[in-house]
Amino acid sequence: MNWKLFFQRDLKFAKKLKRLHHSNAILFLLLSITGLLLVSASFRSTFPATRVWIKYLHIWIGLISILPVFFYLPKFTKHLPTLRKRKDHRINLYLVLSILIILIISGVILSFPEAVTPVISSNALLIHDVATWIGIPYVIYHSITRSQWFKNLLKNSKTIENEEPIVIRKSNPFVGRRTFLKFAAGGITAIISVGLLGNWIRSYLPSWSDVSRTLSKENDMKPRPEPQHDVLSVDGRQGTFRYYTVTETPTFSNENWSLSIEGLVDNKMHFNWQQFLDLKRTAQLSDFHCVTGWSVYDVTWEGIPLKELLDSAGIHSAAKYVKFSSGDGVYTEALSLEQALADDIMVAVLIDGELIKQENGGPVRLVTPKHYAYKSVKWLTKIELLDHEHIGYWVERGYDQNALVNK
């Protein structure tokens, strides 16, 4: 890369294109690094506060990446005729432009989830994912095959082929050196891409998740709850949960799980597993939305409406907020009392007629359909009524306090 191009003026057309190409390459590299950090579960749990800043950095770099495309488009009609006899270069141009435009449009939508409906946001996330996992491997391959090192290898190969006559023998290789080098570059790209793509693909393959759960320790709750209601969705839930945590996933059994209702209540309440299962449950059909863009639709949750639990405990007149604590010992969130008393806020134990799995927040989790999922506390063990506002885990790190989903 010629860094001097960034500081020179009055460049000729070819060098202007080269400068735009270099600018785009740098921005795409930064977007790839920050994007991969955002989807990394290890980074999320180890550097949660930093992750929020990485998210904003990723958004700003994405917005800046519009500029090279914006400056290139007026030059497109002049550039294209120069590639008339270079088919590979034309294909590369069309592919790169398509990927960039798709990433930019979907990225802008994902940057402002409050401005669009969950359906639009969910589709934008899927499109952004696909474009990313096509774009990154292609850019890696493109960078290898267009590097000066690779060009020198091809040049040396061409010189050898010109100087040495080809003798057809059975011992001759089936491919020439130039072809072999391109296959090798493709192989290296494939190896790198498999590692990068693994986690994303795994989220869409339930069988992989089942194997993972089998190999890890699961919750051991006895007895298993029997559904008190039928599954409300005719065709079952639509979409796939993506499992995010900020700590190691906790494991529960009858011995270490309980649910308490404390704080500004008339009667403090404490439930062990059997006592919780003895409570009368209701079922509701609702959608589940994550602030990162994905959604799961038509989910049947079965549990106890939070309003009923709070009414049973007796709400003190001074109570204004409700704090929820996770059994991981770290994660907390809160709702205003008015929000918490909504009819669809539920302390759920079953999903689609089955015990909520450990990775999805079981044995018991909060469900807040009108709020983004970071309000739906996993592994719920304590509910506390307060007279002051509590700042939850992700709100403390920059997320919106109300987390309302735009319908």
Would you give an account of this structure?
This protein is of the alpha+beta class and 407 residues long. The protein has two domains: 3-207, Up-down Bundle (Fumarate Reductase Cytochrome B subunit), CATH 1.20.950; 220-396, Sulfite Oxidase, Chain A, domain 2 (Alpha-Beta Complex), CATH 3.90.420.10. The protein contains 14 helices and ten strands. The strands form two sheets. A five-stranded mixed sheet has the order 2-1-10-5-6. A hairpin with a 5-residue loop joins strand 3 and strand 4 (295-305). Helix 1 (13-39) runs antiparallel to helix 3 (48-64) and helix 1 (13-39) runs antiparallel to helix 4. The radius of gyration is 27 Å and the shape is elongated. The two termini are 47 Å apart. Residues 17-142 form the Cytochrome b561 bacterial/Ni-hydrogenase domain. It is found in: Cell membrane. Pfam families: Ni_hydr_CYTB, Oxidored_molyb. This is Oxidoreductase molybdopterin binding domain-containing protein. It is a multi-pass membrane protein.
Summary of the model, kept short:
Helices cover 46% and strands 14% of the residues. It is of the alpha+beta class and 407 residues long.
Judging by the overall fold, what is the CATH architecture of the largest domain?
A: Up-down Bundle
Query: How many helices?
Result: 14
Strand content: 5-15%
CATH class type of the largest domain = Mainly Alpha
The largest sheet is: 5 strands, mixed
User: Average pLDDT, to the nearest integer?
Assistant: 85
